[in-house]
Design brief:
Organism: Pontibacterium sinense
Helix content: 25-40%
Order of helices and strands: EEEHEHEHEEEHEEEHEHEHEEH
Number of helices: 8
Family: Belongs to the HAD-like hydrolase superfamily.
CATH architecture of the largest domain: 3-Layer(aba) Sandwich
Low-confidence stretches: none
CATH topology of the largest domain: Rossmann fold
Number of strands: 15
InterPro entries: HAD-like_sf, HAD-SF_hydro_IIA, HAD_sf, LHPP/HDHD2
Number of domains: 2
Oligomer: single chain
Protein name: Haloacid dehalogenase-like hydrolase domain-containing protein 2
CATH superfamily of the largest domain: HAD superfamily/HAD-like
CATH class of the largest domain: Alpha Beta
GO molecular function, one term: metal ion binding
Distance between the termini: 7 Å
Mean pLDDT: 94
Strand order of the largest sheet: 5-4-1-13-14-15
Strand content: 15-25%
Length: about 260
């Protein structure tokens, strides 16, 4: 192994508290000069806010060390010559898409793409129906999903993530979403390109058996599951078998030695 991809929520922190030993493990990676990149499906805040959130936990990372679905989709939209987009994600996160004009929300006119992220409690029938009507009115307009995570764990417990809302739109419109975020193979490939390593040379560390582990393995990486975050014991009895199981991210140094 030459590099590590690391999930954030549930791996580096949980319920706005750092996982014990997380910073120590990051220091170990730096000391060993092992390249790493944080790959997160977080769309509730822009990338610089993710970095600031971690800074407040005394975990120091740089914006260029974080790949989010919004950053990935912005690059893709640039290649497509997108002009006006309809973004169904928090207004603060739209900062990372500021180079594009935002749909005014007053009609079903022409848009270059419909982007669906994690609106959490801002979702309503009306909001979901607006996305549906835009897609139906613009048959060539792609549905861009910022991840397909089914749920995540907050301080209140498990909560729906973006995946269920994307699936509702896919079912209603009869078209498939283009996924930017885990478990998309292209998202993992983009992360590997940023680290300049092959899939066989990288290890993914995550708490989501399907998005992190299954997605990474399908892209050719090894993947270890941590027993923090959204982990549930039933994750170990399904059809996806992690390459490694860690009590937490703090166990990475010991696990890494077993791979050498």
């Amino acid at each position: 192994m030459k590099a590590v991809l690391i999930d954030l929520d549930g791996v580096i922190y949980q319920a706005d508290q750092p996982i014990p030993g997380a910073q120590r493990t990051l220091d170990w990676l730096k000391a060993r000069r092992i390249p790493y990149l944080f790959v997160t499906n977080t769309t509730s805040r822009p990338r610089d806010a993710v970095v600031e959130k971690l800074r407040l936990m005394d975990i120091q990372i740089k914006p260029q060390e974080v790949l989010t679905p919004v950053v990935a989709v912005a690059g893709w939209l640039n290649t497509q010559g997108a002009v006006t987009i309809a973004s169904f994600l928090p207004k603060t996160t739209q900062k990372d898409l500021s180079q594009f004009a935002q749909w005014a929300g007053t009609d079903d006119g022409c848009v270059s793409a419909v982007i669906v992220g994690d609106l959490a409690e801002e979702w309503s029938f009306g909001e979901l129906n607006r996305a549906f009507r835009l897609l139906m009115s613009n048959p060539d307009c792609p549905l861009l999903a910022l991840g397909l995570s089914r749920y995540w764990r907050s301080v209140q417990g498990l909560q729906l993530d973006v995946g269920p809302f994307v699936k509702a739109l896919e079912f209603a419109t009869g078209r498939a979403a283009i996924v930017f975020g885990k478990p998309s193979r292209d998202f993992f490939q983009q992360a590997l390109t940023m680290l300049d390593v092959k899939a066989s040379e990288a290890l993914m560390i995550g708490d989501d058996i399907r998005g992190d582990v299954g997605g990474a393995q399908a892209a050719g990486l090894k993947a270890a599951l941590v027993k923090t975050g959204k982990f549930q014991q039933t994750d170990l009895s399904g059809d996806i078998v992690p390459d490694g199981i860690l009590a937490s991210f703090a166990e990475l140094p010991a696990y890494w030695k077993s791979l050498e």
